[in-house]
């Protein structure tokens, strides 16, 4: 989907739409261009500079003001709706909360394994996190069409909401108890940290506990999607006894 003009593009970047790329006319200058560039950089959105003819070809209105954005038409599901749908099913809740994940391939793989494990949904923060892009949808091998994904303004507030709804929130990180000793049979939300940074200190503090995967080799960390898959399937194993 194409959106055009300074106001539309900057509001899309600041809002909850998934902006995949921003096109700016070569040689464009001014405060508004600088502001748009700063926003794109802050949100880690790719910016391509194109000549006037190319931008006009991309434009659908001819009134692009020197800036165009491409957004993914993915519909996020409110977290409250995910909780409601789970209550209607009457099965134990299983959620994955992603804290600072930035690689779209990791997100696609996590959506795929979450769908396979019968999880109820994925929760993403709106800031400093990958969104559901075309790359994510492709990597998920179609699972993104079936797995509810919530985008929340603040992940820590989402953790508080879940706890208020009697959901046990566990952070998957080093230094915790073995995940194989944790009870994952009830209403559970598992926090998976971002590449390199892991789960944030505040998220771990808010969580009901920290669970770890045994590390028996020389490398003391796992890819986020691999860690999510192991954690989810340990929950599956406990639930299908």
Task: Let me know the average pLDDT.
Answer: 91
**CATH fold name of the largest domain, please?**
Alpha/beta knot
Please provide the count of β strands: 10
Please summarize the sheet with the most strands: 6 strands, parallel
Estimate nothing, just give the exact number of structural domains: 2
What is the end-to-end distance? 46 Å
The CATH superfamily title of the largest domain:
SPOUT methyltransferase, trefoil knot domain
CATH first level of the largest domain: Alpha Beta
Q: What's the shape?
A: elongated
Number of helices: 9
* Helix and strand run: EHEHEHEHEHEHEHEEHEH
Structure write-up:
The chain has 241 residues and is an alpha/beta fold. The protein has helices spanning 6-14, 31-42, 52-58, 79-89, 104-116, 134-139, 155-164, 201-206, 224-239; strands spanning 2-4, 18-25, 46-50, 67-72, 94-99, 121-125, 149-152, 168-178, 188-193, 209-212. It has a 6-stranded parallel beta sheet with strand order 7-6-5-9-8-10. Helix 5 links the parallel strand 5 (94-99) and strand 6 (121-125). The termini are far apart.
């Amino acid at each position: 989907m194409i959106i055009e003009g300074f106001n539309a593009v900057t509001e899309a970047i600041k809002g909850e739409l998934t902006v995949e790329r921003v096109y700016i006319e070569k040689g464009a200058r001014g405060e508004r261009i600088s502001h748009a560039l700063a926003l794109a950089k802050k949100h880690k959105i790719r910016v391509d500079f194109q000549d006037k003819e190319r931008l006009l070809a991309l434009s659908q209105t001819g009134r692009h003001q020197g800036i165009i954005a491409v957004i993914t038409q993915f519909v996020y599901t409110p977290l409250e709706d995910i909780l409601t749908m789970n209550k209607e099913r009457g099965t134990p809740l299983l959620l994955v909360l992603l804290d600072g994940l930035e690689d779209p391939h990791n997100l696609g793989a996590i959506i795929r394994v979450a769908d396979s494990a019968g999880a109820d949904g994925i929760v993403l923060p709106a800031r400093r996190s990958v969104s559901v892009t075309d790359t994510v949808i492709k990597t998920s091998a179609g699972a993104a069409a079936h797995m509810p994904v919530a985008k929340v303004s603040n992940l820590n507030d989402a953790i508080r909401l879940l706890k208020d709804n009697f959901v046990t929130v566990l952070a998957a990180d080093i230094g915790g108890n073995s995940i194989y000793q944790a009870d994952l049979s009830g209403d559970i939300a598992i926090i998976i940290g971002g590449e390199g940074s892991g789960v944030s200190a505040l998220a771990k503090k808010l969580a009901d506990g920290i669970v770890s995967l045994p590390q028996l080799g020389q490398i003391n960390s796992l890819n986020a999607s691999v860690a999510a898959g192991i954690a989810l399937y340990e929950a599956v194993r406990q639930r299908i006894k």
